[in-house]
Amino acid sequence: MKSNRRNFLLMAVCAVSLSACGSGGDSSSNSGESVKPSTVDGAIEKPSLKLGFIKLTDMAPLAIAKEKGFFAEEGLNVTLEPQANWKVLLDGVIGGQLDGAHMLAGQPLAATIGYGTKADLIAPLSLDLNGNAITLSNRVWDQIEPDLKKNADGKPVHPISASVLKPVIASYKEQGKQFKMGMVFPVSTHNYELRYWLAAGGIEPGYYTPGDVGGTVGAQAALSVTPPPQMPATMEAGTIDGYCVGEPWNQAAVQKKIGVPVITDDEIWKKNPEKVLGLREDFAEKYPATTAAMLRAIIKAQQWLDVDGGKNRAEAVKILARSNYVGADEAVIGASMTGQFTFQAGDTRPAPDFNIFFNDYAGYPFYSDAIWYLTQMRRWGQIADDQSDQWYFETAKAVYRPDLYLAAARKLADEGAIPADSIPETDGFKDQQSGFIDGIVYDGKAPNAYLAKFPIGLKKGQKVTASGVN
C-alpha cells in the first residue's frame, strides 16, 4: 500500500507542479468490482483523541457521537475542540495537534496534490450531504427582488438564477466598484458551489494563477475568504455583498434582518457531498483499530441524526446550540436543521434534504465525489494543467478511503447497529448524476468529458496568467 501511495503522490505532484502526465486517459482501472473493506483486528491503540471542528451545524455527527455516548461505546475518550478557521484546523491535523477533524472535502485532496500545504491526508468518511446556502445583502436583494418571478402567494420562485445579479454587477462597474462575495476557503465546497451558481447564471467568478489563492483573474464577481461565524458581520459592514456558507450563518442573516438567502446548495447540486472526516494517512496506518472505532462511533451518530424522519433533530439542535459547539440560538439552528429552511420572515419552506447525515449513503466516501472536487479545481485554475482521466481516478483513490469506511460499517451491520442495506455495494463511483442547476450531467468516470461541457471554465490546453486565460 505504501508503494502504491508513493506512486500516486509522485504522479500528483508531477502533474500539478510541472505539466500533465498524460492527456487522454481511460477508466481501465475501474473494473466495476465492488470496493472491499479493510481488515481490522486488535485492540484500540490510542483511546484518547482530540478532534477539531468549525462552528457549523454539519459538525453534528462529532457532537452527537460524544454527547450520546457513541465514542465511549467504542472505547474512545474524545475531546472536541473548535478551531478559529479552516487553515488553523488543517495545520492542526497536519502538525499532529489534532488527531482528525471535521474538514472541507477539498482540503485532504488539495493537501495530497500539493495545492497549498503539502501533506498525506485521507478522507475515510463523508460527514453529510448538502447544508450550505448563498445569502445576499439587503441592499442587493432590494435591487433584484422586484424583477424575480413570483409564485401565486407572491413569494419568489426557486431556484433563483445568478443571472439576476447581472444588472447589479453592471451598476457596480459603472460606479468603479467591484461586486464582492465571501466564501470560507479556496478549496471549500462553498467556493465551488458559489462559482458553479455564478457561472450557471453567465457570470465569470474568476480564475486562479499558480501560487495565487485569490482566484480573481477575469472576475465579474470577486470572491474572498471569510471565516463562517464572521460572515454576517462582514456583509453588514459592506465589505462583501453576499456569501456562501454553511448553517447557521445564513439563518443568522435572516434573524438579524441584514440579508436574504437566495438559494440552498441542494438547488445547485441535489444531494451534493459536503464535509469529510479528515485524518493523516500515517495516523490511520499506525492506529487502524482506533480509526475503525472512531468511524463506527460517527456512523452511529449519523444514523441517530436521520433515524425515523429526523425525530432526534430537535434534541440535536439543543446540543449544537451549546457554546462549546456551534454556539448560536436554538431558533437560528432549528430554522434549517429540522426539515425546513427560512429565506425571509414569512417565507419558510420545506427542506427535507437540506441536511442529510446518514440516509442516501451520505457517509460513504465515493471516489466520484472526490473527482468532482478535482474537476472544479481544474475548471478554475487551481490545477494549472490538463490531467488525464487516470490521474483523477488515482488521486481520488489515494485520498478517499471507502475500504476503511466499509470495515467499520460492516461490523456495525453484523452487530445489528445499522441496517445492512444502508451500506452500498459499489465500485466507489456513483451513477451519472443530474440535479445540477445548469442541467449538466456529471459522470465521475469521465472527468475530462465533464469539464468540456461547461460554457464558463478552463478548456483543454488553457492556462491562466495574470493577464487572463490563454
Provide tags for this entry.
single chain, 470 residues, alpha/beta, D-Maltodextrin-Binding Protein, domain 2, 2 domains, 19 helices, disordered N terminus, signal, ABC transporter substrate-binding protein, membrane, cell inner membrane, NrtA/CpmA_ABC-bd_dom
Describe the protein's topology.
Elements: H1 2-17, E1 48-53, H2 60-67, H3 70-73, E2 77-82, H4 86-95, E3 100-104, H5 106-113, E4 121-126, E5 132-137, H6 138-144, H7 166-174, E6 179-183, H8 189-200, E7 221-225, H9 231-236, E8 242-246, H10 249-256, E9 259-264, H11 265-268, E10 275-280, H12 281-286, H13 288-310, H14 313-320, H15 330-337, E11 340-344, E12 347-350, H16 367-379, H17 389-399, H18 402-414, H19 447-451, E13 464-465, E14 468-469
Parallel strand pairs: 1-2, 1-3, 6-7
Antiparallel strand pairs: 3-10, 4-10, 5-8, 5-9, 11-12, 13-14
Protein name: ABC transporter substrate-binding protein
Pfam families: NMT1_2
InterPro entries: NrtA/CpmA_ABC-bd_dom
Written description of the protein model:
- By secondary structure, the chain is an alpha/beta fold.
- The protein folds into two domains: 2-129 and 274-326 and 356-464, Periplasmic binding protein-like II (D-Maltodextrin-Binding Protein, domain 2), CATH 3.40.190.10; 132-272, 3-Layer(aba) Sandwich (D-Maltodextrin-Binding Protein, domain 2).
- Helices cover 38% and strands 15% of the residues.
- The chain has 19 helices and 14 strands.
- It has helices spanning 2-17, 60-67, 70-73, 86-95, 106-113, 138-144, 166-174, 189-200, 231-236, 249-256, 265-268, 281-286, 288-310, 313-320, 330-337, 367-379, 389-399, 402-414, 447-451, and strands at residues 48-53, 77-82, 100-104, 121-126, 132-137, 179-183, 221-225, 242-246, 259-264, 275-280, 340-344, 347-350, 464-465, 468-469.
- A five-stranded mixed beta sheet has the order 2-1-3-10-4, with helices on both faces. The chain has a three-stranded antiparallel beta sheet with strand order 8-5-9, sandwiched between helices. A two-stranded parallel sheet has the order 6-7.
- Helix 14 packs antiparallel against helix 15 and helix 16 (367-379) crosses helix 17.
- It is globular and about 65 Å long.
